[in-house]
Records
---
Amino acid sequence: MGVEIKVEGLTKRFGRQTIWQDVSLTLPAGEISVLLGPSGTGKSVFLKTLVGLLKPEAGHIWIGDRDLTRLPEADLYETRKLFGVLFQDGALFGSMSLFDNIAFPLREHTKKKEGVIKNIVMEKMELVGLLGAEAKLPGEISGGMRKRAGLARALVLDPEIILCDEPDSGLDPVRTSYINQLFVDLNAQIGATFLIVTHDINSARTVPDHIGLLFQRHLAMFGPREMLLSSDEPVVRQFLNARTHGPIGMSEEKDLSELEAEAKMGHDPGRLPPIPPQLMPSDGRARLAQAAPGAWLRANGIQAPPGSFIDDAGVNWTQEWPRYVAAQQQPVAAPPGGGPQ
Ligand SMILES: Nc1ncnc2c1ncn2[C@@H]1O[C@H](COP(=O)(O)OP(=O)(O)OP(=O)(O)O)[C@@H](O)[C@H]1O
Ligand SMILES: [Mg+2]
């Protein structure tokens, strides 16, 4: 049930360009983590390094007692079976039908019979809403459909670790909500460890247990969701509030004089918005790393921003929590309203 990934002092360079350095974090087993960061900070490079497609210049990636950065090619091939990866561009084979694209890992990595493969492929295609599009080529479908096909392919081997690079880019808001719910449901059902790269602030605020932010060639922060969502760090505030005022500029980080000019103009990064409730599994079960809303804040003596943990229907989940937990202990009881949205 999910495995922990421990990254220690990881550094990646291309030639003389350092993409990021000294990155250390632990993706807790069976939890969902989100990685944020301005464009070009190396999020995609980070995911590719985690699966061993790119070699880091320094550091370690521990999966159990195996260090992925030191594994011989044959062992790396075996270890990759633990991963399901959705690449940013979908990375589908252009000349293969969606069915064959999605079946590819099963044919490559298992000895399953075609009948079994067909059942698995159709099950995953249904899961991502692509039934009926089996015979289509990637060039014949929309960008959002390609994303979902890539996601179906990432899931066919029932991976312990699921890495998704911008699963929601190119999706409409409704499909983004479906994909987010699918991640939370999958996580509760199969217990896989997730790392999701996204630019969608709403997803980043509601889906994960942990959030990390890459900035200026470093991991600026990585920690429990409530820690990031209540953080006073200017770069975190700017990112999560999607503001132009703050250390992140259009092309790169702003220089000191720009920041001083902004400070003189009296721009502040804005008040912290309320922390929304976490997205819950749709069948009413608990998330694997379930904690009461605000538990981390209370444990650390931090006041939640006003209006936190109230869902769109006006339910205050801090008050609702004891009833929700009690309902979970009933065999088939669903929470009122299906859980926080
Ligand atoms: N194979 C490569 N060789 C050389 N440079 C690369 C390679 N892959 C990525 N880079 C460089 O690494 C940097 C980070 O790229 P990456 O694609 O990881 O950014 P990102 O954070 O995923 O951005 P976005 O949010 O736009 O997807 C960029 O400057 C890019 O040009
Ligand atoms: Mg990217």
---
Amino acid sequence: MGTLLLTCPHCGGQKMAFRILYNWKSPRHELERWSAGICAGCHGGVLLLMYLVRNFDPTNYEGDLSQHAVIRKSWPDAPKTEAPAYTPDLVADVFVQARKALAIDAPDAAGAMARKTLERATHVLDSSFGPGDRLHTRLDKLAAAQKIT
Ligand SMILES: [Zn+2]
């Protein structure tokens, strides 16, 4: 059974082995395949649209399919964990941790890192804030100064 290494949209695991359990030819092209795969970690499923480099059955292939197939689309999408490009590095570091925690269904860790993201972002907007300034006070002051809406 062929496998592909993907980021799992369900457990958030990076480079998880997905076994291709089922596939069918697309009516659009002989080498285009729809495939259903299962994560080796959480057993969550994905639907893939891929192109094969030659005509073969991915479910009868043994081993890594990455050299034999190009994935065009996958559903559901893997969670996005990167920060927007304009995010300051100091804020992006904790933002990414919050997104990764959310992706693996760790809401307490995600909440803690999201709060830290806000604390660092408020500090970027007003460097006079210190560790003793509470988050709601920071947000109220930034709103009053019209630095946030
Ligand atoms: Zn998974």
